[in-house]
Write a structure and sequence with these properties.
Structural class of chain A: alpha/beta
Oligomer: heterodimer
Strand content of chain B: 25-35%
Shape of chain A: globular
Distance between the termini of chain A: 80 Å
Strand order of the largest sheet of chain B: 11-12-13-14-15-16
Strand order of the largest sheet of chain A: 5-4-6-7-3-8-9-10-11-12
Helix content of chain B: 25-40%
Helix content of chain A: 25-40%
Largest interface: A-B, 66 and 54 residues
Chain lengths: 309, 470
């Protein structure tokens, strides 16, 4: 028997339907809507990103920042044992740094991608453990803004205290799906793989930045986060708190990279800022194929994020 | 009783400022409750919030009831007063009660009689009034002072004076009070107003156990209610849905909205998940909805060219936020959603709080308030809710310890910065406690590199950990 008639027509139909379905999928994001049959744009370059404000770390990330609509997992390396599990702390100062840069971007209106998305401007903290102290909140809200704007940003923060893990997950999913929220900081303890999958889908649906703080003993377990970070306190020679910040996982990252950060307090000007002291990494982005030798272990030129209290 | 006297009697006396506003609220609540004894129930008309004289304020803290018509229902004045007294005791209140022919006399006997409960019949009014002091007349301090100066201390002496002389000397006010006291002039009670909550009913011909039917009825009620409110240009904040069940207690579902709304779809999206979980028992035969709180709708300027309001983008965001907040509040509870508030205290753990969104001050009332920055000192990023006692090895009391024991582990201290003395809240009326609260704070770095915030109470050797830089 010969080939049935109309195979080419059916093939065209199938292709057309596939194209339509992909268009529908793209159509969920208004800023990425494209005409039928148009060339697919590079979606990753158009996604909004939140920056840490430290150039070397930002450059190590795909598209120079933390993706919106994705999970970013943070943990603090600690010697906490099973007996004292209630004593772990989230990396609040790093969260404050990320929020600081995000608020600056939104307030200045430079980030047109955010504008196009008509993103909400609420910041939500879920889980009492992650709730900030005045120090963290002051660090998160830029001092350069007018006093009224600062007060307004403070009022845009709200804090959820779920009674149990079920409520914590439900409130996180609702918050991530909401278009009114720009970023969510959440106590991410005791979330299993299925829960994390649901969180990831919800974050993608609402295009919300999700900063997930995980306890040290759960870090990198069942993780499907876009980026995984680990912080560890370091002894500093100059009486300033110092951490090593390690990027464990990111798209295109061949080997973990790490840097040393310092939180410097100037007693006279009463200003604090994160300084990048040095890079102690052994890898990099695969596509860049950078080669590192022993010299990279030496302190590089310090980069300073404009981040004050 | 003076504060000194109270402190002499009891060791731990807690002092609280007299708050007339709270007092008035409590009186209003008590007055509303007392309507069961008489329809005419009201707060003492002389109670004023802005009155700076605390003695006057405390004298006027009371409620008045006109029981002329309701005595028969309680089979006598004694029964009524006994019931009132018993219920007040159950509330934890000690009441002084008086039943008298006039409001002025009841006021005077409730404050100045020697017994907590007095019954004054009409024929003995003059006789019993005679023993009361001049203050029982509800006159101003100046008149009372003048009367005392001329040697008039009780009502017997005052009532013997010719009215004309009193009128000439003190003006009409004193005379009016005397006439009100003995019943020659009327004194009306200002009754408390009770706001009735509008309610819509949907009675069914028979009980139903079908959830779909209840869905339709609830939707219909919401639609009608929203249409009615639209006409009145009103929005609601609190709603109560009541489902009368057969062979089971009435079920209620309350909706609390973060921002006023009259959108049936929005309300339905909040109500439906909760209605699904409702136990219908043997059926529901009546559905009603009651508006507990409503506010006038805000008007927005509309662009005459486009026909839309200028802040349509903001409105979209606000509606999204309202939807999220309503979902969270109605599922988790209003007390689980909080806002950050700075407090006027320099003690770290009392310098801020997370207030429930339902109790937090709305943004509109905080115009001109700026974000306060605590620039004076460097504070840790994590502050423990209450300081944890730790064991330390410290050679000198004004130096940081050289070793601490925390989380069942011993840590060597590399370096420390301090001390920074944080004093007590001296304005609190507990001087002994204030002395104990003097703290010397140190920032210390452990061998692991972690920086922690510890303090020592000045009058003791006990060290506490209060925060961590994380």
């Amino acid at each position: 028997m010969g080939r049935p008639m109309g195979t080419a027509a059916r093939k065209n139909e199938t292709l057309q339907s596939l194209l339509e379905s992909s268009t529908l999928w793209f159509g969920r994001f208004s800023h990425r809507r494209m005409a039928l049959g148009a060339t697919s744009p590079d979606l990753t370059t158009q996604l909004p990103h939140a920056k840490l404000g430290l150039e070397q770390i930002d450059q190590a990330l795909p598209n120079s920042g933390l993706e919106f609509g994705a999970i970013h997992e943070w943990s603090v390396a600690s010697s906490i044992t099973e007996k004292s599990r209630n004593h772990w702390q989230p990396p609040s100062l790093i969260f404050a740094l990320i929020l600081h840069n995000l608020i600056s971007e939104i307030a200045s209106g430079r980030d047109l991608v955010h504008r196009d998305l008509a993103h909400g401007q609420q910041l939500v903290w879920i889980g009492r453990r992650c709730w900030p102290t005045p120090t963290v909140l002051e660090s998160a809200i830029p001092e350069e803004l007018s006093l009224l704007e600062q007060a307004s940003w403070k009022d845009r923060c709200f804090f959820i205290d779920p009674a149990n893990q079920k409520h914590r997950l439900w409130s996180l999913l609702e918050t991530l799906r909401s278009k009114a929220v720009a970023a969510t900081i959440v106590d991410g303890s005791k979330f299993d793989a299925l829960n994390l999958r649901r969180i990831k889908l919800a974050a993608a649906e609402g295009q919300t930045l999700c900063l997930l703080a995980r306890p040290p003993w759960e870090s990198n377990h069942n993780s499907i986060a876009s980026t995984c970070w680990r912080l560890a306190a370091l002894a500093s020679p100059n009486r300033h708190p110092r951490w090593s910040i390690e990027l464990l996982r990111a798209r295109g990252l061949s080997a973990p990279r790490s840097w040393i950060l310092e939180w410097s307090n100037d007693e006279l000007s009463k200003k604090s800022a994160f300084h990048l002291v040095s890079s102690t990494d052994g890898g990099g982005l695969a596509k860049k194929n950078e080669r590192h030798d022993s010299t990279t272990l030496l302190p590089r030129k310090s980069a300073t994020a404009t981040y004050r209290t | 009783m003076s504060v000194t006297h109270a402190r002499a009697c009891l060791k731990n006396v807690e002092l609280h400022q007299f708050n007339p506003l709270l007092e008035q609220k409590a009186l209003a609540a008590l007055s509303r409750w007392a309507i069961r004894f008489s329809p005419l129930s009201g707060i003492d008309a002389a109670f004023k919030i802005d009155d700076t004289d605390q003695i006057n304020q405390q004298l006027h803290c009371g409620i008045n009831l006109d029981i002329s018509g309701s005595v028969r229902l309680f089979r006598g004045e004694e029964n009524l007063v006994n019931q009132l007294n018993l219920t007040l005791k159950r509330f934890g209140l000690t009441g002084r009660l008086a039943v008298a022919p006039t409001l002025g006399a009841a006021w005077a006997f409730s404050r100045f009689a020697r017994v907590p409960t007095s019954f004054i019949p009409q024929d003995k009014l003059h006789q019993q009034l005679a023993e009361l002091p001049v203050r029982a007349l509800r006159i101003d301090n100046l008149s009372r002072q003048i009367l005392t100066e001329v040697g008039i201390s009780n009502l017997r002496e005052l009532l013997e004076l010719p009215p004309k002389a009193l009128l000439d000397r003190f003006g009409p006010r004193l005379l009016i009070r005397i006439r009100q006291l003995i019943g020659h002039e009327d004194e009306p009670i200002t009754p408390i107003r009770i706001t009735a909550h509008p309610e819509l009913f949907f009675p069914l011909t028979g009980p139903t156990t079908q959830l779909e039917a209840l869905y339709q009825i609830t939707k219909e009620l919401l639609k009608r209610l929203c249409q009615e409110l639209e006409k009145q240009h009103q929005r609601f904040r609190k709603l109560l849905f009541i489902y009368r069940r057969i062979n089971a207690p009435t079920a209620t579902l309350s909706l609390i909205l973060s921002s006023p709304s009259a959108d049936p779809q929005h309300l339905w999206s909040l109500l439906q998940p909760r209605l699904e979980k409702l136990n219908l028992a043997d059926g529901v035969d009546l559905v009603s909805v009651r508006i507990l709180d409503k506010t006038p709708a805000q008007t927005l300027a509309v662009n005459f060219l486009t026909g839309t309001s200028d802040s349509s983008g903001n409105n979209k965001n606000e509606s999204q936020l309202a939807l999220l907040l309503d979902q969270l509040i109605n599922n988790l509870g209003a007390d689980k959603i909080c806002h950050f508030e700075l407090l006027s205290s320099h003690l770290p753990e009392r310098s801020y709080r997370f207030a429930s969104s339902s109790k937090a001050t709305p943004l509109k009332q905080k115009k001109g308030e700026s974000f306060y920055r605590t620039k004076l000192f460097i504070r840790p990023s994590v502050i423990l809710e209450s300081p944890l006692p730790i064991r330390t090895v410290a050679l000198l009391p004004d130096k940081p310890p050289s070793r601490i024991q925390w989380r069942n582990r011993s840590f060597r201290v590399i370096c420390g910065i301090g001390p920074e003395r944080i004093g007590s809240e001296w304005w609190q009326a507990q001087p002994q406690r204030a002395a104990e609260e003097l703290r010397d704070y140190f920032r210390i770095q452990l061998q692991t590199g972690t920086w922690i915030w510890i303090f020592r109470r000045v009058n003791s050797t006990q060290w506490f950990i209060h925060g961590v830089w994380a």
